[in-house]
Amino acid sequence: MAPDDKNRATAAAILPLVGGAQNVTSVAHCMTRLRLGLADRSLVQDEALKALPAVMGVVEDDTYQIVLGPGTVARVTPELEAMVAESHPDTGPQPETPVAEHTLTAAELAAQGAAIKEARKAKNATPFKLFLRRIANIFVPLIPALIGCGIIAGINGLLINLEWLPSITPALAAIASGFMALIAVFVGFNTAKEFGGTPILGGAVAAIIVYAGVANIEAFGQKLSPGQGGVLGALGAAVLATYVEKWCRKWVPEAVDVLVTPTLTVLISGLVTIFGLMFLAGEVSTGIGTAANWLLDNTGAFAGLVLGGLFLPLVMLGLHQALIPIHTTLIEQQGFTVLLPILAMAGAGQVGCAIAVYKRLKHNKSIRTTIRSALPAGFLGVGEPLIYGVSLPLGRPFITACVGGAAGGAFIGFFSMIGDKVGSTAIGPSGWALFPLLDGNKGLGLTIAIYGGGLLVGYLVGFFATYFFGFSKQMLVELNAEDSAADTAADADATNPAAPEPTTRPTAPEAEPARA
């Protein structure tokens, strides 16, 4: 099947399972997830969706999110958008969800994971966390450009170090740096859009921050610098512009609205930005960079342990979104964020945990099938299928996965403490997918070795912590019960329940594996 046909087929398979085109109110995507706004959540067939070969899992938050993985999601989304735009009513009966005959299979774990996510969604619906989601919605659309420019910057750095293609490296530097030089404009555009203003006005006000002419302006007794305040200043400027615009729309007569509102919005917000926000946001941005460097320089191993160990719980609480502007600010200031490689160790602990679960649950074919299907994505940093389908609903393995992440984070933090910083030139990827984006204050080879060592430590500690401490005896008995039922049926007359298993013994039916 041609790639386009495959992506179209995936979209066609997904659409009826989310209630059809009439039930879809919005379509968007991030790095790995197809994000759908739905009119009626009850029309979604979760288990049937999870059973689709292309679907790695589902996550319910403010939107219904289907995990398809990097690359695939960017190709399936436009196909689904086209189908929704056609607005064909859904015809034909919906496939029924198979019912699991055993209680502790992957399907049951996925149901438990869904219940946990539902409860988490209700707890996360606080004003502060909703605000963080809006912040994430501003920065997530920028991630593809950050990744592309980051990889080009890495290639250019390698060429410069090897003294290859000297006539090409200046062009690559321009390509890699152009987006970062104007990122404040894109942040302003997205901010105004997210907060209900006119996007282009948000971008216009944010553009003041990167305009070279601000170097001739003095504020708080100091000359301003182009780019001062960075993305934080752009964020504040665009939010201010949105509120000024809304005020103008309310009070300015309609006859002159088209002239007065944009003018007042840009003028008032621009003056506040120049004579207030740029300086204040610049001080905050400098403070973030200083704090991150101090933390890793002085408490590297401990800081890495805490960050790596707590990142998964932060994700569960929805607080990880607050880190996105911090990452972007560090990339603006230093060329890379030193926090992301440490946080990526949480995924390494998750992978090690999943392998240990696979080894311990030798008789649970359903869970083992789920792990086999989700593990490759886990190595590439897509952790949702393993988190929501395996470790989180099991409970204790989720904790031991965090232990693995803490160990990997401590490893990288230790090297940062002795002066070998490891950073990422972009945000979004994790796991093995982060290797092309690595950068640091030493040679690339050493940077790669430290990050690779951290992954290995995370895998090993996550594995052994889960293998030895992730299960109680009762959990092992219950979770290995899939074949136990078959043992009972086949050996009903046996007096010794521990007798060897007959080779012709029937096996118990399996539930549909859940790829979550």
Automatic annotation (TrEMBL):
Ranges annotated as spanning the membrane: 138-162, 168-189, 201-221, 256-281, 301-324, 336-358, 398-418, 444-469
CDD domains, alphabetized: PTS_IIB_glc
Cellular localisation: Cell membrane
Alphabetical UniProt keywords: Cell membrane, Kinase, Membrane, Phosphotransferase system, Sugar transport, Transferase, Transmembrane, Transmembrane helix, Transport
Region of interest: Disordered: 488-516
Domain PTS EIIB type-1 span(s) in chain numbering: 8-90
Keyword Amino-acid biosynthesis included in the entry's annotation: no
Active site: 30 (phosphocysteine intermediate)
Topology relative to the membrane: Multi-pass membrane protein
Start and end residues of each PTS EIIC type-1 domain: 133-483
Stored InterPro entries: Glu_permease_IIB (IPR036878), PTrfase_EIIB_Cys (IPR018113), PTS_EIIC (IPR003352), PTS_EIIC_1 (IPR013013), PTS_IIB_1 (IPR001996), PTS_Sugar-Specific_Components (IPR050558)
Record-linked PANTHER family: PHOSPHOTRANSFERASE SYSTEM TRANSPORT PROTEIN, PTS SYSTEM N-ACETYLMURAMIC ACID-SPECIFIC EIIBC COMPONENT
Protein name from the UniProt record: PTS transporter subunit EIIC
